[in-house]
């Protein structure tokens, strides 16, 4: 479904990603794990078109994404939940969700999508008129995921959904990811919370210093000695 | 229909009736000025309300005025054709300046600085080509010759006609403001003003949305310049172009209220009456005092009343109504209530 071939990317003179190749198949949940500064967020931004790859090729359902502008990529069916949620903090919850359905095709099905998201997150229905920036971190994360789901994506990119949340909320977020993927959506998730994320995904890539070090199924990685020592602390 | 939905029509009818019952030239002149400047300020606020602060709108206004007048004097082109040409020129300039800014993410203060330079450049061009434009001494469109149509030349001597023209244009400006306010672009632009990346990630074509509103605002402002030129029959870089005019727009809109449709109009009334009062009370002894007063007021407003006079009044009213009655249906109620002056709860406070 999504395929990256030796992608290199960065910010002007600074290169953050080197020779990244990965693929996500239809219906899968895949994680990219790794320490701070490994290039995980950059990877997400390259896929959703917020920055351009300097090298390599990105294809989504056979289409080349390397030169497709960000707003067209949303239309193709990739929704990005950015790091730190990046809600429109001064808009209401409902207006944030409305923005999620900005593309004409999604706009036509706005009511339907809104009901879908509200059923998924009943809390958001209660808070629909609240200014998004005044909600708790967990609620904001729900709103950010809800906003992404409004566009009826085929592939959901989640950038550190657990960052900055209380442990009990982190648990809820991962439960949610599980529910979303059981609904048939393909998910690519970037996380530092390795222990938790490996329980929800099928496969994972380990990204370190801008390059992919290891890849494997969740079970394999959980067994891997180096990962257990470096990331799981056991 | 309720009282509230009647109100704009009654007010509109009263405004239209004014010149038929009231012929005193001086008050009419002041009202025409207020209407033309209100339209110009509304044009600025169409983009300014989304955090796209332009300090270059004096440039667009100057283009509207000078292109129209130059085409009339040198080519003999009627303003009916000259104004569209001027609007095209202003729109093209907005594209030329806007596209690189938006494409390469020049935002906030940097965008304001680019537009400030634009306003300076237009001023310099007008003064440098003084052989054609009269430079800083100003420029007068030639009077249409006796026997030629005043309508073709768009030159009217009676204030009543001008009042009705200015009123129509002002109302059209408010209508455009509302069209933008109810469009999906408004959500897109508000989202962009909060977070460009997040907006792009939800599928907004950031560059296109910003360009569209900038061109619209520039074209409207140029139209205000052309109208001003035809009415005053005298233009100079100081009165329709340049940095002082650009700053005057920002000031008036901030004072009136940037997020409400009638805010720029309130700003025009306040600033013009202030300037007239100073001029009448102090005459030539107070030349430039209005700028001093503007400056002080601007600082006070930005600190204490960032939503402007009208914006703050509407907010107080809205808060009171919130407190006294439970609004049924939440956002549906607010959306169905198409009241122009509804203060948006999502208004930025600073």
From TrEMBL, chain A:
<keyword id="KW-0547">Nucleotide-binding</keyword>
<dbReference type="GO" id="GO:0015807">
    <property type="term" value="P:L-amino acid transport"/>
</dbReference>
<dbReference type="GO" id="GO:0015658">
    <property type="term" value="F:branched-chain amino acid transmembrane transporter activity"/>
</dbReference>
<keyword id="KW-0029">Amino-acid transport</keyword>
<dbReference type="InterPro" id="IPR003593">
    <property type="entry name" value="AAA+_ATPase"/>
</dbReference>
<dbReference type="Pfam" id="PF00005">
    <property type="entry name" value="ABC_tran"/>
</dbReference>
<dbReference type="InterPro" id="IPR003439">
    <property type="entry name" value="ABC_transporter-like_ATP-bd"/>
</dbReference>
<dbReference type="GO" id="GO:0005524">
    <property type="term" value="F:ATP binding"/>
</dbReference>
<comment type="similarity">
    <text>Belongs to the ABC transporter superfamily.</text>
</comment>
<keyword id="KW-0813">Transport</keyword>
<dbReference type="InterPro" id="IPR027417">
    <property type="entry name" value="P-loop_NTPase"/>
</dbReference>
<dbReference type="GO" id="GO:0016887">
    <property type="term" value="F:ATP hydrolysis activity"/>
</dbReference>
<feature type="domain" description="ABC transporter">
    <location>
        <begin position="2"/>
        <end position="234"/>
    </location>
</feature>
<protein>
    <submittedName>
        <fullName>ABC transporter ATP-binding protein</fullName>
    </submittedName>
</protein>
<dbReference type="InterPro" id="IPR052156">
    <property type="entry name" value="BCAA_Transport_ATP-bd_LivF"/>
</dbReference>
<keyword id="KW-0067">ATP-binding</keyword>
Automatic annotation (TrEMBL), chain B:
<dbReference type="InterPro" id="IPR001851">
    <property type="entry name" value="ABC_transp_permease"/>
</dbReference>
<keyword id="KW-0472">Membrane</keyword>
<feature type="transmembrane region" description="Helical">
    <location>
        <begin position="213"/>
        <end position="235"/>
    </location>
</feature>
<feature type="transmembrane region" description="Helical">
    <location>
        <begin position="6"/>
        <end position="22"/>
    </location>
</feature>
<dbReference type="Pfam" id="PF02653">
    <property type="entry name" value="BPD_transp_2"/>
</dbReference>
<feature type="transmembrane region" description="Helical">
    <location>
        <begin position="287"/>
        <end position="305"/>
    </location>
</feature>
<feature type="transmembrane region" description="Helical">
    <location>
        <begin position="77"/>
        <end position="98"/>
    </location>
</feature>
<keyword id="KW-0812">Transmembrane</keyword>
<dbReference type="GO" id="GO:0015658">
    <property type="term" value="F:branched-chain amino acid transmembrane transporter activity"/>
</dbReference>
<keyword id="KW-1003">Cell membrane</keyword>
<dbReference type="GO" id="GO:0005886">
    <property type="term" value="C:plasma membrane"/>
</dbReference>
<protein>
    <submittedName>
        <fullName>Branched-chain amino acid ABC transporter permease</fullName>
    </submittedName>
</protein>
<feature type="transmembrane region" description="Helical">
    <location>
        <begin position="110"/>
        <end position="129"/>
    </location>
</feature>
<dbReference type="InterPro" id="IPR043428">
    <property type="entry name" value="LivM-like"/>
</dbReference>
<feature type="transmembrane region" description="Helical">
    <location>
        <begin position="161"/>
        <end position="180"/>
    </location>
</feature>
<feature type="transmembrane region" description="Helical">
    <location>
        <begin position="247"/>
        <end position="275"/>
    </location>
</feature>
<keyword id="KW-1133">Transmembrane helix</keyword>
<feature type="transmembrane region" description="Helical">
    <location>
        <begin position="34"/>
        <end position="57"/>
    </location>
</feature>
<feature type="region of interest" description="Disordered">
    <location>
        <begin position="330"/>
        <end position="350"/>
    </location>
</feature>
